[in-house]
Structures are given as structure tokens and as C-alpha cells.
Amino acid sequence: MWIADNWKDYEVIDCSSGEKLERWGDYMLVRPDPQVIWNTEKNKKQWNNINGHYHRSAKGGGEWEFFDLPEQWSINYKSLTFNLKPFSFKHTGLFPEQATNWDWFSEKIKNAGRPVKVLNLFAYTGGATLAAAAAGASVTHVDASKGMVGWAKENAVSSGLADAPIRWLVDDCVKFVEREIRRGNKYDGIIMDPPSYGRGPKGEIWKIEESIHHFVQLCASLLSDDPLFFLINSYTTGLAPAVLTYMISTEVSKTHGGHVEAEEIGLPVTNTGLVLPCGASGRWSK
Length: 286
Prior knowledge:
This protein has seven helices and 17 strands. By secondary structure, the protein is an alpha/beta fold. The protein has two domains: 8-78, Sandwich (Immunoglobulin-like), CATH 2.60.40; 95-285, 3-Layer(aba) Sandwich (Rossmann fold). Helix 6 (208-220) runs parallel beside helix 7. The two termini are 21 Å apart.
């Protein structure tokens, strides 16, 4: 398992009964987590001393309950600064477990000894974009949500990367990749964090199990002649590490050689010393 254990401003303190207790900078949140199927004794002092609690509804969805929590605050990861705000369906605008991937490809970029072009698809609020830019890459950031791209730009400014070579695009990722193929553009690194289900700006439907393999085929054709890395993140249980390995091996390694590995990713839990699983990632590199 790849563990995001270099955080100072974030930690999972405990997890039990379908929920996790987290520290985001100075603030404590309780949020649901479907992976937490165990029921262990809670430290009531910790679990009751919180600033926000997302209550899941039995009918689906849910709502936030706030206790002295600002509308927005920020936390740091190394040189990066992320602006947080609780919004739709339990999210805060950041997936901290992805830091293990940021560290991995940042080293690839720093050690490349040449200009590196990176494409970040389904790029959300820009965690991977900023990590790649801070490492020295020029980045094309693509997400179908105008609001998420705006949020990512705010994070870039907060991180001192307002003038970094980042291209911000609000677009359907599949259609963008198809156009890039026609234009003959190439990238040294490709990152994708596809949702299980989503809609593009014009109502295009994305279902990951039906769409991901063809999409990986398309993206593989955007790799440069001397590519550096290819990364897929998955929060869908059907895309286990072995599935990611097989898919990347058949679509990327057959053309570019290199090495493929895939693992679960996770976050350390302070109270127990165990690791909370948070999906899986597949990585290809030379």
C-alpha cells in the first residue's frame, strides 16, 4: 500500500462505525466513509470536540452540521496551500491521500533534467496540477466543472504559482483528449482521476467501468516519444490494483516499455497506527 504519511496539517485521528474523525489544520471534522465497516470504541472527548459533522441520509446524500467552522480556511502540504470549504456531499475540496502520488511524480519531474509537459484530467481543485507545477512541469489542467477550475486557480495563487505555466480548461475530458489527438499534441506525463459517474458540460455521461479502457487507449496515444509517467487513480471498488495494472500494461507498456505497478492508497490513522484504505492507483514509468 502507498501511504500519504508526510502531512503535517492533516490527519485521520480515528475511524469507526462508517465515519472518520479528521483534523484539517485547526479544525476537526467527522465525515462518512463507506470503507469503515468496523465498529470500535470511540474516544468521546475527541469525537465530541468537533467543528463540523456531515450526516449521511438513509435516502442518499446528507447535510452538514457546523460548530464554529469558518466558511473557508487553508492547509499546507510542503510548499502548496489549499483552500478548503465544506460543500456538496461531504467533500472539502481536497483528497489528502493523493499526496502519495504527488510525491511520486514530483520526483520524476524534478529528476527528468528536461522540460516536462503534464496533462491532468478530471483535475478537480488542482492538487496534482500544483504539485506538478511546483516540481517544474508545464501543466494542462482539464475539468468539466467551471467552479472546480476556479477553485484550482485560487489554490494556485495561494501556493505562489499564479504565474506558473498552467493552462486552465473547462472541458469534457474525453472530447478534449480526442481533439488533442487530432491536433497532434503530446505530453510527457498524464494524470487522471476519473469519477465513478459524471456528466460533462453538455450532459455527456461518464460511467467508469464502461468508459475507462477506451479512454486509457486514447490517452496513451497522447504520450510523447520519451514519456515520463502515466497515473490512474480510482475510487471504484471494481477497479482493483490488478485491473489497473492489466489495463495500463496492455495500453501503455506495449508501446513504451517501462514498468507498471498498482497498489491501494491510504492514510495513517493516529489512534490505532493502522491505515485507512482510500482507493487504488496505477502507475507507469520508464
